[in-house]
Design the sequence.
């Protein structure tokens, strides 16, 4: 039973052919130690502001990581096993029992990036190379508990150890940003900056919309009676986010439709929604498109980078959502259009002021067909990193192969980790760096790029582009 | 002229890089001899029940293999050449002449899986390594005839030689399953089991629907006057199929839409259709979705695995269909949706009772975007093997690369050969095993998987998963 | 500073694994010198008929190459920089200044095929291996000017040096083809033939349609008062094109919808459009589909190959189009359907007379899903080369991998360069030959194809298939 250790391959993910591997290794060695520039993610600022000890292996690694829980559920683990703080008739498992379950299903993660991240987290972050299994579950649980009791494994200590230059969080538009204020006063060795995600204000037909508007009005210190009130409040709050270090807003949206409606129609829809009248799906979609259009106009003025994350049926299983909440892994992507949907926004703002947008997609057919052609001509359009289910070696390679020929490298925005799982941040950036090194080595081996050029590009993809695209210091010629 | 032999490369389809090839070879060697578990296919049970000698090279290999005839037609061979037993004014070619035509067009098969299967069939099954060409056509025809006269080349003898553990056929819901009864009494060294495919009962606007309902009522020994009669008969007949060994049903459907309509509306539609009233396309689609929903409910109770084969415009050329019949190669896939279409079924039955479905697609954009996310969270959803046009090395690799990162291996259902061409079964499984070995070797070479793990996965993909997913004995934890 | 030279790798684009590379090299060596058969492109016949000296590096390589200008625009170069002969308030840059800008942004082209083509043009055509950069810009500009002053770099001299067997241009249906007449009388060592592209006549709702009909009527020497007049004129002009050497027509169309409308309805629409009445988008689309259907009928008679280039939102940014004209890089592809859209045309003409069509797409999901299945059964359907944004090594490889398994090689139409940039023709054919060699070498290494067969296929893809499919001499069995 000596075999049950995790063997981390130093050449992980590098191409197999020896000559190409040597080139990739050289590139990777030059970028592996660069700082982490993480300009889109979902780590809670409170985690770092409060700097509490992590509670257990389970809360650290399992409970809130829907990549993991969804695969466990697919293997038959009941949803009620997890302590998601929803009222269910069933008692959740103890942290230790969830951990045991996870270890039992370790083989189900073969071939997934989650496995790679977890191995990285165990070995490189926690210093534990024991392979999870039914037999090792308890021992591992205790070993991790031991680590977590050590102050060196508190969030802030890890933040510094990870070499994070900047970490963007995702925040409601009514957030008071107090955690960020705490973190600005702390000396973390890197910035933690907010990102405004106003989705809940844009969904006038959704349950809870009026409450969201109320909360937003309160935070903005204003009354919101007509649409203009909300737009003015948004402008002000964007400025406050910017003052707190924000470089971007983020928008989750079913489609990429961004289009103005006549002011009169928008005002009337807003009024009806505020009065609690029924808004149908088409009206809600048109209103969302309108508010995104207004957001683009604001971005052209204040320069906050507009990120669009479209094309997911979120909470696709409404029974699961009602019982267990959001972000439980029941979010299913679908096919979307970009060419027609983005046209009104780009005709209006594609060359306007400080406007800049970063486009993500879970419909990878858009990469070569629509997004690379758009990013390859509009100076304001950038391609976001492969996102969510695409945050994986194969999808990253497909992304580079699909977009580079049309958009080059300079119209991409670098890697973002997009994670809630704080411990996985270095693992995710490491995978991205390895895959970029592998891709660039292929270009060098094919005679398409010189080695010196490849190195320049590798560094640019890792730190230069995200800094420049998100306007963090290195503005350069863009 | 000594070159005209078929050279079978022992490393066929294994990756070219020597180190990766060595790993792949090792994996392949361990799985190449495993039994064939073939749980979805279209071989006629009568072939084995009657065990007649095959008639000629042409009927054995050409006439009913639309992969072959379609490519010959694309090269200008007239449809009338084939003896498809349809009334045409033109005399079909003799078997020998069709064979000559096929041999003449042998180069047109370069780069296709059909070529690989045919080479396997000639060399490995028939023991003939002569390459087809105009010059060799007659000699080959005669050599094959000689083989076929040998009792060792009768269907049952081949069945045993192929090492088939189980072979599923596809059967009309009114089949009396008498051939299967004969086969249960024979000692084949493996099972031949039926699969119910009730498509014809679900298409109320199709020509022949009323006749199908009549035939079904007769087989079920009941009257069918209202929809409930048909549903009850379906439940009973499913039980009879199950008693005859069936583990699954199969559903060819234009879209993946599965959704309940109000009983009253469904009853009324059924009545109108039975009365011969006109049903429009939208009504027919809604009724089909309703019957699929009812089928899912039945599956949740009786545990027959529900296979969905969507997204083909079957008989796309209606002139060809009218003159030459179905399954002549004029079936063209199109783009479909899964996220929205399957939602009602999965909200209702995704966690219900014994419900289990296997999803196939010819729209490969679904693999990473919709199907892997679904299979990666619902315990009842499995990814079917690359199907039809995708039953080919490149498509199989694309499949694994697209789905594994999100769904792992354990949410896939293993390989199914889906063929009418009995002789090609071992070839198809051999190609799948080689491609899986190649894919797994890549993961090992990239440091993502240990060799022992890869071997476990290879065996599981070959026999473990199909047995478990289709509930053949190895139920295990699922 | 000696490093700033362009190093052309003799093994450019060949696979990295030594054994596979050796096979690819052998294949490439056998096809690299074959004549250029260029049966779809956009070079202006006047360029060769007039044979003027090229004006400068900028007009030669930059101004009219939207692959280049779009990437410069994406980097922030203003659209007004280019001298596109549109009335703008801003003075365009001088040729030298545009060249300096291009050289400054040279790194933005890393990873794009444009870079590969430009390197080829500089080194192989112009004999200059200096790498573009801010420092070398002026020197390069002057060196190129020196070359261009040399009669050996006039268009006709280059045409002969490039080894062009045939070059097809793209021509309005009212073209008098006088340039082609001049070229027929010249001795170029190869043919320059016209291709009729009647798009402007088919768009009854577009600005300028009536003027186009007028121009066409004038060229056809007839009055066009009813639709039949135009159809008859089209038949006559097609014959005149054919007499001038044309082998094909070309059709840019938003969708692939080809379908007949009742004559009465079509006649009435035509009359309304001619009377200047408003035609809505749905009517215009139906009329376009009708004229494409009529074109297919004409093709079945006269044998001009019908090329369909669908699925682009052309001039997507109407502000840019209004100010700077068409073909400025603001053309964005979108998702389209083939299975349903082409059905009426293929049911009617798929087996009719001399009908033959070549299908291109920018929606690559069609390749494996719809186009390969269609080309793999209809003798009249061929797959066009990867087009526009897909004219790149990765997209070419994806194309072969997507279509060959279903359609083989014999149902593809060989490479077309599709370029306006005369100097890039050899570069583009060279890239295609290298990629085909690489792909075929993979098949050989995988044991799927013999070396002799691969060589036969390589030659066929390079010259045999385009000659045969476009009916240039080598008709053979097709």
Sequence:
């Amino acid at each position: 039973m000596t075999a049950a250790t995790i063997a981390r391959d130093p050449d992980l993910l590098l191409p197999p052919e020896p000559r190409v591997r040597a080139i990739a290794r050289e590139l990777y060695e030059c970028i592996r130690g660069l700082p982490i520039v993480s300009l889109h993610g979902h780590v809670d600022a409170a985690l770092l502001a409060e700097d509490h000890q992590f509670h257990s292996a389970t809360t650290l690694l399992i409970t809130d990581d829907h990549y993991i829980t969804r695969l466990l559920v697919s293997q038959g683990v009941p949803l009620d096993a997890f302590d998601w703080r929803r009222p269910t008739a069933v008692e959740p498992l103890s942290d230790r029992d969830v951990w045991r379950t996870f270890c039992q299903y370790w083989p189900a993660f073969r071939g997934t990036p989650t496995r790679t991240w977890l191995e990285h987290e165990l070995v490189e972050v926690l210093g534990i190379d024991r392979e999870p299994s039914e037999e090792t579950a308890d021992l591992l649980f205790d070993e991790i508990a031991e680590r977590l009791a050590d102050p060196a494994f508190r969030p802030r200590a890890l933040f510094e150890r990870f070499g994070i230059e900047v970490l963007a969080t995702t925040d409601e538009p009514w957030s008071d940003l107090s955690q960020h204020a705490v973190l600005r006063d702390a000396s973390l060795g890197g910035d933690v900056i907010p990102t405004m995600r106003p989705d809940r204000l844009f969904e006038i037909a959704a349950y809870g919309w009026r409450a969201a508007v109320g909360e937003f009005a309160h935070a903005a210190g204003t009354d919101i009676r007509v649409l203009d009130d909300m737009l003015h409040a948004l402008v002000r709050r964007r400025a406050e986010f910017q003052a707190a270090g924000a470089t971007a807003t983020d928008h989750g949206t079913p489609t990429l439709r961004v289009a103005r409606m006549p002011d009169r129609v928008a005002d009337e829809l807003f009024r009806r929604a505020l009065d609690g009248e029924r808004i149908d799906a088409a009206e809600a979609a048109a209103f969302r498109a309108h508010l995104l259009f207004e957001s683009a106009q604001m971005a052209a003025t204040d320069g906050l980078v507009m990120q669009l994350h479209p094309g997911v049926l979120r909470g696709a299983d409404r029974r699961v959502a009602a019982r267990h909440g959001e972000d439980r892994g029941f979010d299913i992507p679908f096919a979307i259009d970009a060419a027609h949907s983005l046209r009104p926004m780009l005709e209006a703002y594609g060359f306007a002021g400080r406007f800049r947008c970063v486009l993500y997609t879970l419909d990878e057919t858009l990469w070569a067909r629509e997004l690379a052609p758009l990013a390859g001509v509009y100076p304001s359009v950038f391609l976001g990193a492969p996102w969510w289910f695409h945050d994986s070696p194969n999808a990253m390679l497909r992304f580079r192969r699909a977009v580079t020929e049309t958009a080059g490298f300079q119209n991409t925005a670098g890697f973002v980790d997009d994670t809630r799982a704080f411990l996985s941040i270095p693992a995710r950036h490491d995978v991205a760096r390895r895959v970029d090194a592998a891709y660039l080595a292929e270009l060098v081996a094919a005679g398409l790029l010189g080695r010196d050029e490849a190195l320049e590009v590798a560094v640019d993809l890792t730190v230069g582009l995200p800094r420049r695209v998100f306007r963090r210091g290195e503005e350069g010629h863009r």
Notes: Strands of chain B lie at 36-38, 164-168, 191-193, 248-253, 305-310, 312-313, 332-333, 357-359, 381-383. The mean pLDDT of chain B is 95. Chain B has two domains: 55-153, 156-469.
